[in-house]
Amino acid sequence: MKAVDGVQSEISTGDSSGSDVPVEAIRKDSEIFLQEVFGYESFREPQQEVIERVVSGKNALVLMPTGGGKSLCYQIPGLIRPGLTIVVTPTISLMQDQVDALTQAGVAAAALNSSMDPADRKRVWARLHSGEIKILYLAPERLLLDGFLDQLASFKPGLFAIDEAHCISQWGHDFRAEYQQLGALRRHYPMIPVIGLTATADPQTLKDILKVLDMSTEDLYSTSMNRSNLRYLVEPKDQPRKQLLKFIRDRHAGEAGIVYCGSRKKVEDTSTWLRKEGIRAVPYHAGMASSERTMNQQLFQREEGIVVVATVAFGMGIDKPNVRFVAHLDMPESPQHYSQESGRAGRDGLPAECWLCYGWQDVMMAQRRLAEAEIDPAQKRIRRHQIDAMLAYCETSECRRLNLLRFFGEEGEPCSETDQVCDNCSGKIELVDGTILAQKLLSAISKTGQRFGKAHVIDVLLGNATEKVTRFGHDHLSVYGIGTELDEAGWHSVFRQLASRGLVRIDLEGHNGISLDARCRSVLRGEEVFTFRKDPLAKKSSRKRKKKKELGLDAMEASLFDRLRKHRLQISKELEVPPYTVFHDSTLVEMSQLKPQTMSQMAMIGGVGQKKLEKWGQGFLDIITS
Ligand code: ADP
Ligand code: ZN
Questions:
Q1: Could you give the 3-state DSSP secondary structure of residue 236?
Q2: Does ligand 1 lie within 6 Å of residue 414's CB atom?
């Protein structure tokens, strides 16, 4: 069997399973294939190691960022190992591209899928029977068709490659039920090596893949997901189109880029508008005629300086190396989606930018879409968690690179001098010290027993006397009502920040109960400063803030003011009189600002007469000095 014209290999024609082939021979062969078939000088990390392992008959799971060079990890073993290599891949539309590219390189490759016409399919079958084909691409549903696995035996499979292996896991962003059945391969052909490949897998997803493919952590090869040539930038949505235009004009005039939008209509509107503004923009979405889509894609690939405005339907398999920016006008569904989509920038290793514009309406929309989705509750919880993680990325004040990497289980370093420095590391972002906010939330989680969900803890902080709050007696806790300086949305934001830094944990398997991680102690003790970006907190609380501002109070004073007011309300309820007859607002404002520490200081506050001092002075003093 001759796999490739012009390449003679000692072992490519052998009949052994490959397990006793000396490593030197494999190395020599793989280098020959690399240079002569693919035309590259040397391997990248960890291609060679993976190839050696797989050729020698062992399994591997390869986690490498987009553009890292995963394909060679199965293509070269496919050429070296005897028999047929089966590549399982989820997108039919991309199969032909891969087959074409291999055919160009002189490799006998083919695809079998439901979109082919019967004559083509027949031809492929004939080539398979004649033993001519070396690498065959299939969709998972074809592989799992009745009897197909048995039928395969006659073609002597030598290797199974599972591309986009994260589709196996419910945690992955592209979960596919058929992928989960791929374990059947291992049971059917226990002696044939399997190689899984993915660019986006968090630890949970990896665990699932290993389990389904019956592999161990020994089989895992992962390189850092960090893309040091990418700069990450996030802007809160204000006038998104104008912000986008400014970003393109100021930083990427005349360069190729992708702009992702959440809907087809927005794709159309945005590309039309950009063209009017003089940008060479073309639309791309699944609702367009396929001829038009192909034309726009080719324009993007072949010409310089084209901006494609697209839904997420665009990008899989696009191998344009010099995409200088990827912009998102809507928030992606998850950090996995984001790293995959933004990862299409700068495949050539040169500086490129990933810009994202997000707004509160994105979150609402994502949540609404999720609520309406007909998926099982476990999936919903996972997706909700991913939306939260994505939002945490948007709102974080820490290094974006670090934040994104952490989602993939990597403890990286913040941007260094050799990186394209992200906006948060650039020192140009306005930060606020949120240590006290963090402490309040952590204490509320702790005092309520580390078993309630977010909404309840926030109710306690805000002093909302819900049925649940009173039922559990949480209105008697010292943390009750201490968080009125933010509104509900503001607290959700604080919460996400704590969660994204691993200080609190959500019990996703149970009832979303929140517990504290030991690491939060240093924040609770005040040994660690916790900063927030000003914008996410400020924006959502602007109404409340404004009101307090009119009173001339800063955040701390406003918080005290709220507590005093709550106390006043309690008194007025007991006495069944209007609150202002206890103390006027102006009196409470003065108390909040001057913070009297003794009864005689209290007596100096405007509106605190002798009678009122005797009756209520101590109560208010206790709140101020607590
Ligand atoms: P992935 O599937 O990991 O996103 P690909 O396999 O498509 O990446 O490879 C990305 C690009 O890098 C392709 O253009 C590929 O030809 C190229 N490439 C892969 N391995 C090497 C190598 N060892 N040397 C040079 N270029 C390589
Ligand atoms: Zn950074």
A1: strand
A2: no
Q: Which fold has domain 432-532?
A: Arc Repressor Mutant, subunit A (1.10.10)
d(CA 42, CA 55): 18
548-625 has the same fold as 432-532: no
Per-residue confidence band for 259, with pLDDT thresholds at 50, 70 and 90: very high
Number of H helices, E strands in the chain: 29, 17
Mean model confidence pLDDT for the chain: 86
Going from the Cα of 88 to the center of ligand 2, the distance in angstroms, rounded, reads: 36
Q: 228 and 418 in contact (C-beta within 8 Å)?
A: yes
Ligand 1 pocket test: pick from 319, 344, 347 the residue with the most ligand atoms within 8 Å of its Cβ: 319
Residue-wise pLDDT for 547-556, tens only, equals 455 566 777 8
Map tokens 């939002």 to a residue: 391
Specify the pLDDT at position 46. Answer: 92
**What's the CATH number for 548-625?**
1.10.150.80
Locate the domains of the chain by residue range. 23-222, 230-429, 432-532, 548-625
For residue 496, give Cα distances in angstroms to 233, 253, 335, 357: 19, 35, 14, 18
The fold of the 230-429 domain, in CATH, is: Rossmann fold (3.40.50)
Query: Bigger pLDDT: 295 or 553?
Result: 295
CB atoms within 10 A of CB 410: 16
Residue 17: what pLDDT? 47
Superfamily of domain 23-222: P-loop containing nucleotide triphosphate hydrolases (3.40.50.300)
Instruction: Please tell me which residue, 354 or 321, carries the higher pLDDT value.
Output: 354
Please tell me the predicted confidence (pLDDT) of residue 328.
97
Q: Whose CA is nearest to atom 25 of ligand 1?
A: 40
- What pLDDT shows up at residue 199? 86
pTM: 0.67
Percentage of the chain with pLDDT > 70?
92
- Cβ 70 under 6 angstroms from ligand 1: yes
- 75 in ligand 1 pocket by Cβ < 6 Å? no
